[in-house]
Amino acid sequence: MPRAYAEAVSSLRPVPAPTAAEAERAIVERAVGLLAGRARCRVAEAHRHLLRMAADQRRDPLEVANGVIRMLDVSESATDRSQPVSVPQLVTAALTAPAAAGPVKPKPAAVRRFEPWLAMVQRVLDVTPGMCGYLTAERDGTGRILDLVWAAVTPEASTPDGLRGAQLIGRRISTQFPSAPDSGRWEVYQGVLDTGCPDAIGPFRFGDAVYTVRAHRLGHGLLLNWTRHDEAGRESNRVAGTERLGNLGWGEWDLVSGEIFWSEHLYRIYERDPRLGPLSRSESDALAVPEDAPLIRAALEAFDRATQVDVTTRVRIGGRVKHLRTVADAVRDTAGRPLRIYGIVQDVTERENDARRLAEVERRLADEHELAGRLQRIILPLPDGPIEFPGLKVAVRYLPAGRETLVGGDWYQATRLRDGSVLLAVGDVAGHGTPAATTMAQLRHALRALAVTTGDPGVLLGQLNRLTCELERENPELSATAVVARFDPNRQEILWAQAGHPPPLLSRDGRTTTLDRPAGPMLGVVDDAVYPTARLPFRIGDVLLLYTDGLVEHRRRGMDDGLAQAIRTVDEAVAASPQQPLAQILARLRQANPDDDTCILAARPVTGETRDLRHHLMPLRAR
């Protein structure tokens, strides 16, 4: 009871928030995982590729990682569930699932009984070091073992009778070792199968060597691991382990005697029976991909010049193409003629395939980014310069979160109404991609259409809210904010309302402040929400800034710090160019937020004397 109480109290203590470094590392790891999953490559290869992308683009790896996450992190419902299970999942399932010793109790979700799947077990053993094998048991009516049959083995598995690896599969222990059923080891295997408790035998001597065997129950069979303890066996295991880890083999060719030697793993790379001996020159040439002939000739010419060769070529083995890296050198006589050639052959097929798949993913990301850019320009066209209305000049800037990001949900509206007033608005739909872009377009165009019937910002937001509530029924994750303002040039006044949006900034007399927001919930939260309005005198010299939260929210600082920075930037811009502040403001607020898109709309009252002089200069330039 005291222990349970202590654990309960401990669970109520706040968990310390991760440090900035830990959070950034988690983002990079998540991006690497997504990239490896999409490319179906190793995580290490995906990590190297992400760093290379960052170096090529001269960007922070964290920035690239955020872009990859935004592009590739899709919901489970959007994934293709028909894809095969990954190797790590298979390994986990094979080694952690309990043996099926009795009936499985029903659970709310359908759960299969664990049955050894030989193909899966073999895939696990293919990457398992040492000598290990899975044997199925043949039993009599009382459950006693009659025989054990090799069903799956590691590449390094060998038995004292000289059989190795796949040569063991299908062999019966009783025919391979006739005395085995009468030995004490048989009783140990029986006990492991009956109880499920692992056991070990040895060390014991068999023939000229000493062995230790460890047995585990796996499903209805035995998983055996055995070790040879003599020095030669240990050295052989070390060499075999090195070859396995590097997926490489080595060979020598004595040009004087004509003798050729291949290591065991070199036979595995070429998928050749060791009893057939090394490949002949003609057999090796027949495996080569014809397109690599110039590369092979260049390597042979370099070798003739007494240069060490390091070349990667392709061979066709068993209907598949493998990429093999060959590093070769020679012992030469005083004239430079080779006497003995020795080399290492490494199977780099996975690495080459990883690089190809990663390049394909990168190309697709670039294509999707280009498509997203075109879609962004279609849905949210941005003006080439300032927009001039009667008594008002407006400038707009859109800052995408990153080069890999999909089209976002930030939007603006600036249009003249029938009564001569000007409608200004900025909104933000959470998320990226097609759903956010679709909602953004619906709200933006709905606002323009509704403005034909009324210019009251509070009424317009109420109607947008009802529309968002309808859309939310189709997309429960939908959330949006907006601020709507109407400028009356006759009264020099702004009437505005907001729906859960960051407060606008007002620059007046060289000092920028936030406006006190009238009440107003986010769009789509309350069906019959009411949005009160506020009035603001807007005189010559004032500047109004509407923006989305990407301007002030950042993963490396709080919102208050971001807002303070934006206020300082507007103050500096107005001080630097009091007569033409809009261009200065947008130029200084050009730093994109890697986490979110940013839409900025800046407006200032003007008189007829402050029109853009470019309209008068263009005829002169034409001359």
Automatic annotation (TrEMBL):
Organism: Paractinoplanes globisporus
Matching PANTHER family: STAGE II SPORULATION PROTEIN E, STAGE II SPORULATION PROTEIN E-RELATED
Domain PAC: 305-360
Keyword Signal: no
Domain ANTAR, residue spans: 8-69
SUPFAM superfamilies: PP2C-like, PYP-like sensor domain (PAS domain)
Name the record gives this protein: SpoIIE family protein phosphatase
Superkingdom: Bacteria
Pfam families reported in the protein's UniProt record: ANTAR, SpoIIE
UniProt-listed PROSITE patterns: ANTAR, PAC, PPM_2
